[in-house]
Amino acid sequence: MTEPRWRLPAEWEPQAAVLIAWPHAGTDWAERLAEVETTYVALAAAVVRFQRLVVVVADAGVRAHAEALLRGAGVDLDRIRFIELPYDDTWLRDSGPITLKADDGRFQLADFRFTGWGGKFGAEQDDALIAGLVAAGVFGQAGHRRIDWALEGGGIESDGAGTVLTTWKCLHQRHPEQSREAMDAILMDSLHAGRILWLDHGYLEGDDTDAHIDTLARFAPGEHIVYQACDDAGDKHHGELARMGEELAALRTVDGRPYPLHPLPWAQPIVDEGRRLAASYANYLIVDGAVLVPAYGDAADDEAARIIGSAHPGRVVVQVPCRPLIWQNGSLHCITMQLPAGLV
Fold first, then answer.
1. Is Translocase one of the keywords (predicted)?
2. Which of 49, 123, 130, 247 stands 20 to 30 A from 262 (CA)?
3. What is the distance between the alpha carbons of residues 273 and 288, in angstroms, rounded to a whole number?
């Protein structure tokens, strides 16, 4: 009997739903809860135009509150499934499941250890989130593999064909004792990848993740790469992001060709109480038939949306107001996890 071939699907492949967790007063959003809920409502409204949404809520009260907000905004609640589970925070890109798919149609949930981005924050409930969703029956007959190695979904990008892109800064912070070769072996085994591409440059001030790839560079269909550039020579990010751009230009596809690159414009510095916030346009979300793009109230918003749309032809481009999110050092992609078609 032939063993099935597994792979990590690309985000632009067909999806069943998007998974999020609703912010509430017991999370770090408490101080600006009403403000950030406007982003969650806009996100939910955008997603359900194209596919279903699975919303994790802490309890019945949070569910009722979320339902009232969504209903008030005209969001179709019939396209939303609520699941009650405890969670520390709402960054489900990093605590949610990384879903592998076999060529026979089976799924496996890769459940890596979530450490609160290297121990920066408490994460015990978030680390148990995938097991809770499995127990709630969200994923049907999908396999569930617990992997005792720290990795967040925002730290990896897959082209769906066996190539995974990541950053050395992030994974070296999580595993300072391991060599790049050792990490290559772990990633290729756990993600069924054929090769791992590493970036040594690139960061955003105000980013807690130690340079997650989904804030910096993203695979796009047709072996393209979209990345966050900085065209302001006076900005402290300019040199590092320019070097990252050079690294991306030096990468080659499996058959030896350079990747066509799509540099994104740079938002002007957004400062909150003296702290610069990480406003990345690369942190966008792909759903069936659309691409949801962060908007920060900056003059570069529309150009960023145009470029991202050009890299994802045939999809509707929807801008989602994400300025409230970057107060907690993440953006649109960080609060979501796509679930492949057939999984839910």
1. no
2. 49
3. 38
What does the block give as tokens for 172? 């070296």
Per residue in 33-54, is it b (16+ CB within 10 Å) or e — as a string? eeebbebbbbbbbbbbbbbbbb
DSSP string covering 272-322, please?
Answer: ETTEE----TT--EEETTEEEEEE-SSTTHHHHHHHHHHHSTTSEEEEEE-
| DSSP H/E element including 328 | none
- Which of 96, 129, 120 is CA-nearest to residue 329? 120
> Cα dihedral sign for 153, 313, 73, 54?
negative
CB 280 within 8 A of CB 228: yes
Task: State the Cα–Cα distance between residues 251 and 317, nearest whole angstrom.
Answer: 28
CA distances from 34 to 41, 72, 254, 292 (A): 11, 14, 47, 21
Contact 2, 329 (CB under 8 A): no
Distances (CA, A) of 83 to 22, 86, 101: 10, 10, 24
Cα distance between residue 134 and residue 141, in whole Å:
9
Q: What is the pLDDT along the chain (344 residues), one digit of tens a residue?
A: 678 999 999 999 999 999 999 999 999 999 999 999 999 999 999 999 999 999 999 999 999 999 999 999 999 999 999 999 999 999 999 999 999 999 999 999 999 999 999 999 999 999 999 999 999 999 999 999 999 999 999 999 999 999 999 999 999 999 999 999 999 999 999 999 999 999 999 999 999 999 999 999 999 999 999 999 999 999 999 999 999 999 999 999 999 999 999 999 999 999 999 999 999 999 999 999 999 999 999 999 999 999 999 999 999 999 999 999 999 999 999 999 999 999 99
Residue 153 and residue 210 in contact, taking contact as beta carbons nearer than 8 Å: no
Q: What is the 3-state secondary structure (H, E, C) of 154-194?
A: HHCEECCCCEEEEEHHHHHHHCCCCCHHHHHHHHHHHHCCC
pLDDT at 64: 98
Q: Which two tokens stand for residue 199?
A: 């970036």
Overall CATH class of domain 6-340: alpha beta
